[in-house]
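[Automated response] Your request has been received and processed.

Submitted sequence:
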Amino acid sequence: MTVFSSFAGALHAHGPATELGDKLQLYGWLIGDWQMDAHRPLPDGTTAKGRGEIHFGWVMGGRAIQDVWYVGGPAGKPSLYGTTLRVFDPGIDAWHIIWIDPLGQNHLTQTGRAAGKDIVQLGKDGAGSETRWRFTEITDASFHWIGEQRRHGSEEWQLVVEFFARRKAG
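Generated structure:
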């Protein structure tokens, strides 16, 4: 018996799964298309800047949200091209987050929760450093995303990258 006619049909969903109610709205407001400015601090004290886009959509019967992040680099090649899968877990009242960056070979898992008006995702990267990704300054049309890491034994968070996103018109 065929349920779906294509990969896209099996993956994409038209909206959130109704049985999970408002729990899916922690990230549900992101659904759609965004443009962004990327800022990455460099060891010499300067900042590398780039422009990119992010696309968020409901997937897997509306029980998860997947995104694709892209930042252009030199000579038209991407400097960042990755995807996140966010799945709500009612058992822990939080989100499991899986990030995959095939260009940089970065793969990590985190747990995401609301923290006041922000969203905070905590986890570890492949080298064992703690990671903290935060959505801040959230509005219907914009957000500031901050990526930080804390190396083993350190008490301080170090800024790795930040994105300033704006929802695309239309």
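Summary generated for your ticket: The domain at 7-167 is CATH 2.40.128.20 (Lipocalin). Residues 1 and 51 are 45 Å apart (CA to CA).
If you did not submit this request, please reply to this message.
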